[in-house]
Each structure stands twice: as C-alpha cells, then as structure tokens.
Specification:
By secondary structure, the protein is of the alpha/beta class. 30% of the residues lie in helices and 28% in strands. The protein contains 12 helices and 18 strands. The strands form 5 sheets. It has a 7-stranded mixed beta sheet with strand order 5-4-1-6-10-7-11, sandwiched between helices. The longest helix has 14 residues. The protein is elongated, with a radius of gyration of 25 Å. The two termini are 33 Å apart. The model has no long low-confidence stretch (mean pLDDT 91).
Length: 384
C-alpha cells in the first residue's frame, strides 16, 4: 500500500510579462475571474494541498489576498527557474511533495493535479502530459532532418510534482542552467526517472490571444446563460445613513429598513437569486428576525455569493439604475461601480451603475424614498 500524502505544497509561477500576448496574461479576465485566480482555485480543491505559494509581482497580490487570505507570496526572478527557486524557498519545511504550476494554466483538473502529486510523492517525480497530436519534424536550417516517432512523444504540462527533497536538490545543483524550460529536466539530470501522468487537452497554457479564446470556450461549454431582475424601494428618514452599493453618500436622510437599507445591494442580490431561481433576500434574511437588525448589506451579498458558488455560477455583467430625487448621485458613480465590483468579485468593466431622477413626481420626487432596478447576467454550470 502506498504512503498517503498529507502535506503538499504548490508553487504557482506567475511572473511573466506576456510578450506573446502583448500584455501580462495572468490577470486577464477568464469567465469573469482573472486567469491566475482560476489557477489558484483549482489547487484549493486538492485535499492534500496545505500551502499555496504564488510567485507574482506586488501589483497582482491585492486581488489574490482578498480571495485567498492564507496564500503566501514570493518575488519573481529574472528567469522562470529563478522564480521557481524563489517560490520553493517560501515553502513550509513540513511540505512532503511540491507541485510547480504555471499561473497561465487555469483549466487544470484538480483530480488530475491530486493524482500527479501523489504519484510524484511515491516515485520522486511526475508530470501531467498529453500525447502529441501532430507529427513532429526535427528541423535544422529550415530543412527537415528527420520525422520523430509521434507515438513516443508527449507534450508536458503542469503541475510537475516532486518529493520536496528531490526538487530542492535539483534546483540547488542545476538551477543555474539557462536552457532548461521546466524543472523535470533538472530532476532528470539527477538520475531520477520522471513518471508521466495522463492529463487532458483542456489544460492548455494561455500564451497567445487565441489561447484565451479557447480557454473561454472550455469554461463556457455546458454552461447556461441566465438573466435576473431585481427591484427594491426604501423610505428615506432623517438620522439614517444613505448607503448605496456599499458606499456611504453624505446626505441629511438615509434609508429606513430592517437592514442598513442599501437598495442597490438588495436589488442586485434579488436579481442574482432570481437568475438562479433561488428565492429572494427576504427569505434568507427575514425582517422578523431581530438578530439581524441593521445588518450590513455586504453580509447579505456575501451569502448570495455563496449560493452562486453552490450553483457553479458566476456573474458576467450587471446593470444597475438607482431612482432618487436627492442627493445627486453622478459624482459617486465611480466609487459605487468600484465597490460593486469588489463586493461581487467582478471586473469593474462589467459593472454598469447609473441614476435617474423622478422628476419631482410622487414620494420619490418629494425626496421621501428611493428605488433601484438591477439586471444581471450569469453563467451557470460552467467548468468552475
């Protein structure tokens, strides 16, 4: 019986500049989330993984830190191997096996990663790979020297997994080599045989714009697009806070309600629940419950995000319209859009927020109330 792997670590390398993409690729949006976030998420689903180290520049870290508070960061090096060494140095000494993964591979199957880690722990080294599809020509000076036997050729992917002591030995001895394109070459130089663990062709590396299009298609395959509509209305009362989309706006009145009265968050949350056919926020947070009096509506949004995750859904777009006579909202558009993007874990460019007056008609026109309409588009049931 093989020994169980209980404490694995992952080094995700994401320090590249994206020369072939034309811009850094690790933070490009993929199905509503940055590519690097998708890569990290996969390893949070591997039971043996107890530590994730992300090797990435400081400007990428705030997004990751918010979503994954326990991950560790390391600084990129001048080469990929230097970045791997930086990440390995940040690992907990208790780590038994290490997976090295490209931050630009967001579609890795967690089950395949777990299998590769266990195999690397047992044999010393293992890599995910797929059989070569195309006929491979060995070329010199623009002329074919020979046609290689395709049946013996595999395309290496990541993660590449090793017993921790073997990887450290290989990096210490051969980490200076400039011609090595992955860590398994260094391990091979130690005389350690590297086992192939079959993977799938979806585990592609995003290198060019075409790769991003293919990855998006893989994520959306089998997904269902849904639209939801939400509406909320609250009276305005002196002495209350005027909070919209998680942003407090200076005003002499605020929303009267069992919660903080954030009509924008309430409308968006009901729109999401409507798209999922999952009820409405009044059922999740009934106004008859005294324990949630004056609850921060961001907590309501957090609960709705959990329900989204349960449905394997993510937000593609939201369009929000606040209807109020006062105060003037347009100076706060950017702040509210930014807040909504953070609360609902979206790219800000997919968040629309605007306001309309009520032309002095009715209670809203008299400044006694405000209402909000929200429309959201979700993808439900994608690979995530």
């Amino acid at each position: 019986m093989s020994e169980a792997l209980n404490f694995a670590g992952v080094v995700i390398v994401a320090g590249g500049r994206g020369k072939r993409m034309g811009r850094p690729k690790q933070m490009l949006p993929l199905a509503g989330k940055p590519v690097l976030v998708r890569a990290v998420e996969a390893f949070t689903k591997v039971p043996s993984v107890k530590q994730i180290v992300v090797v990435t520049p400081a400007e990428n870290r705030d997004v990751l830190r918010k979503l994954f508070p326990t991950i560790v960061f390391a600084d990129p090096g001048a080469t990929r191997l230097a970045s791997v060494m930086s990440g390995v140095q940040a690992l907990d000494p208790r780590v038994q096996a290490v997976a090295v993964h490209d931050g630009a591979r967001p579609l890795v199957d967690p089950a395949a990663a777990a299998r590769c880690l266990q195999s690397g722990f047992e044999t010393g080294a293992a890599v995910l790979a797929v059989p070569a599809k195309d006929t491979i020509k060995q070329v010199r000076g623009g002329m074919v020297e020979q046609t290689l036997d395709r049946s013996a050729l595999w395309n290496a992917q990541t993660p590449q997994c090793y017993r921790a002591d073997i990887l450290r030995s290989a990096l210490n001895k051969f980490g200076h080599l400039q011609d090595a394109t992955d860590e398994s070459q260094l391990v091979e130089r130690l005389g350690v045989k590297v086992k192939i663990e079959p993977s799938d062709y979806q585990n592609l590396k995003i290198t060019t714009p075409e790769d991003l299009i293919m990855a998006e298609a893989f994520f959306q395959s089998g997904a269902q697009l849904r639209t939801g509509f939400g509406f909320d209305l609250h009276r305005l009362q002196a002495g209350r806070k005027f909070i919209i989309g998680g942003v407090e706006i200076p005003h002499n009145k605020g929303f009267l309600g069992h919660s903080d009265g954030d009509v924008v968050l309430h409308a968006v949350c009901d729109a999401i629940l409507g798209a999922l056919c999952a009820g409405e926020i009044g059922l999740l947070f009934p106004p008859s419950d005294p324990t949630i009096k004056d609850i921060d509506s961001k907590k309501i949004a957090a609960r709705v995000l959990q329900i989204m995750q349960h449905h394997h859904a993510h937000l593609l777009h939201m369009d929000v319209t606040l209807v109020t006579q006062e105060p003037k909202i347009s100076p706060h558009y950017d702040a509210v859009r930014k807040s909504l993007a953070q609360i609902f874990e979206m790219d800000e460019k997919y968040v629309s927020f605007k306001s309309k007056s009520h032309e002095h008609v009715g209670e809203i026109g008299r400044g006694e109330a405000a209402m909000c309409h929200a429309v959201v588009t979700l993808s439900v049931g994608e690979k995530a």
